[in-house]
Each structure stands twice: as structure tokens, then as C-alpha cells.
Design a protein that fits this description.
The chain is an alpha/beta fold and about 325 residues long. Helices cover about 35% and strands about 25% of the residues. The chain has 11 helices and 13 strands. Helix 4 (about 110-120) crosses helix 5 (about 135-150). The protein is globular.
Length: about 325
């Protein structure tokens, strides 16, 4: 049924003379959909159009049968976690979620109950009373996810939700996405990390320079680049130990310690195996604070996949 779909019909968005997205036509069923592309491919613009934060220059968008312009109706159906790290000043994690839920007109008791439930869901119960300003990057990422989940939406739109999470939290978050998808909901995730997309997606939309260049499964694309090294930045308290352990595995071809001593840059031919290795190391004494793909290498992979240089877009 069309009311179960997210559809875009010949959608374009321009910022004056600058292209955001152009001629995008999609029909997305429930499940996990990944918007994939390097920085500047148009992923965030497309998400902002779906949520009504931007209006298309031309074309038609429907989210479960609703136009994003029907913001009062869409508000209760969609949960959106942006990549932007901004929060109301001085609020604790609990207060941040509680104040958001009050916008729905829920009672005080219901807001407290739902806030506590969703904070537990993302693993922040012990930190709920602390100010968000004192959270680590990964914790701020999780409290943004909690806000998107808090009102039990049918559509989750999440901009780079796994970026900066440590391996164990990352695995739990992926399992959370899968559970929501099995309940017949939409989980729309943007990423520029190919191995994550292959792990979690039911369908993939590959973007480049504001255009959709491919749809479907990513496995065939990944098979073409399996031997191409990928750089991954790991922030941890024992970078020398992590580098030493990583070099015991033949898929790791380079390990570079950061000058400030807070992490290590790893180059691997097999990111799937390396992320499994990180999970093992995290369970066996290595305190991993965050994991981030190195953008330059990701962009080069997409240059290889798509050909040519990326156009500038938002």
C-alpha cells in the first residue's frame, strides 16, 4: 500500500545556483534503508526534505501518505536524529528527553515514564541526571537517538547515527534498528561507511553529487573493492597496545599512532574482520572510546565506485 511507503517523485532542491539534490525518484518500503555516499553527496538534504525542514524546489514527497508540509501530522509519525551536535543549554539527558515529550501534550507522569524507558533503551540510565554538555561524543549521539525514539514513531530518519560510537554500543544500536525494522517500521540511515551498510540494510540508495546513482543491494559493489584498504580512526586509552594487537592480523596493513597519544589510525584490507576484532579487543581490556572512518579514504572509494570527482552539494 502507498501509505506504507516513503515516496519521492522527481524531487529537486537548489540553494540558489547550488545543487542540493536533483531529480530524485524513490519508493522506499518498510525496513532499513541506507542512504550512502561521501560527504557532500546530498544525504542530509534528502533527509531534511523528508522531514519538512526543507521544501523541494520541485517534485512531490509523501511519507506514509503525508506531505512533509503537513508538519503537525508528520511530527508524531517521524523521529529525526540529525548529525548536528547542539542541545538546549544546561539540560540533563533526562530533561532533554522529557521536555521534548511535553511537546506532544503528554501528562507529566507519561513523559517521565517514556523518558526513562528510552534512556534505558540507549544505555544512558546512569548518565541521565548529568548535563548533556558533559557527555562524550558517543553519549551525545545516543541521547539524540533517544529523542528520535521517544514518541515511538513509525519512521526513524537518522543522519550518521553510528559515527563515533564504540564497538559494543554500535552493535547494540544496530540490533535496535533491526528490531524496529522487523516491526514493520521505516529506519532510514545515512552513512558513508560501506561495511556498515552491508551489515544492516534491507535496501541501499547510493548518492553522488546530489543524484541517486544506484539502488538495491550493496554486496556486488563491495565485492569490487574488497582488496582496497580502508582507514579507520580509533580513539582509545591504550593506542600502542591496540596497534600491537592489530598488527597480529594479516588484514591490517598499517597502524599510525596519533601525535597527541589519544588514538591510532588503522589501515585494513578487510573492515568487517577488523570491526569484529575491535569487539574482541573491547571485551578483553582495551578501553575504546570511539571509532570513526577516515573521510579521505571513504571519498576515494566513492570516486572509484562512481568515477570522477564529487560535485559540491549539501
Amino acid at each position: 500500500m502507498k501509505n506504507d511507503l516513503i515516496t519521492l517523485d522527481n524531487v529537486s532542491r537548489f540553494y540558489g545556483e547550488v545543487l542540493g539534490v536533483n531529480r530524485v525518484t524513490l519508493s522506499l518500503p518498510p525496513g532499513i534503508t541506507s542512504l550512502v555516499g561521501p560527504n557532500g553527496a546530498g544525504k542530509t538534504t534528502l533527509m531534511n526534505l523528508m522531514t519538512g525542514l526543507l521544501r523541494p524546489t520541485r517534485g512531490r514527497i509523501r511519507v506514509l501518505g503525508l506531505s512533509p508540509a503537513q508538519s503537525h501530522k508528520l511530527f508524531g509519525l517521524v523521529g529525526y536524529a540529525t548529525q548536528f551536535d547542539a542541545f538546549p543549554k544546561g539540560l540533563s539527558g533526562f530533561q532533554f528527553i522529557y521536555s521534548f515529550l511535553r511537546l506532544f501534550g503528554y501528562s507529566n507522569a507519561k513523559c517521565k515514564r517514556l523518558a526513562n524507558q528510552v534512556i534505558e533503551q540507549v544505555g544512558l540510565t546512569e548518565a541521565a541526571g548529568r548535563k548533556v554538555a558533559g557527555y562524550s561524543k558517543g553519549m551525545r549521539q545516543r541521547i539524540r537517538l533517544a529523542q528520535a525514539l521517544a514518541h515511538d514513531p513509525r519512521v526513524l530518519i537518522l543522519d550518521e547515527p553510528l559515527n563515533g560510537l564504540d564497538p559494543l554500543v554500535r552493535a547494540k544500536t544496530i540490533n535496535l534498528f533491526r528490531r524496529y525494522a522487523t516491526e514493520g517500521r521505516h529506519v532510514l540511515v545515512s552513512s558513508h561507511v560501506l561495511h556498515e551498510v552491508d551489515m544492516i540494510s534491507d535496501q541501499v540508495v547510493l548518492m553522488s553529487g546530489g543524484y541517486v546513482v544506484a539502488e538495491g543491494q550493496i554486496q556486488s559493489v563491495r565485492s569490487e573493492i574488497q582488496e582496497r584498504p580502508v582507514k579507520i580512526l580509533i580513539h582509545c586509552k591504550q593506542p600502542s597496545m591496540l596497534a600491537s594487537r592489530a598488527f597480529e592480523h594479516n588484514h591490517v596493513v598499517e597502524a599510525q599512532l596519533l601525535t597527541e597519544g589519544s588514538g591510532v589510525l588503522i589501515k585494513t584490507r578487510d573492515p568487517d574482520r577488523f570491526y569484529r576484532l575491535l569487539n574482541h579487543l573491547a571485551l578483553n581490556g582495551i578501553d575504546i572510546e570511539g571509532v570513526t572512518p577516515a573521510d579521505d579514504n571513504v571519498n576515494s572509494v566513492y570516486d572509484y565506485l562512481i568515477g570522477g570527482e564529487e560535485n559540491v552539494s549539501t
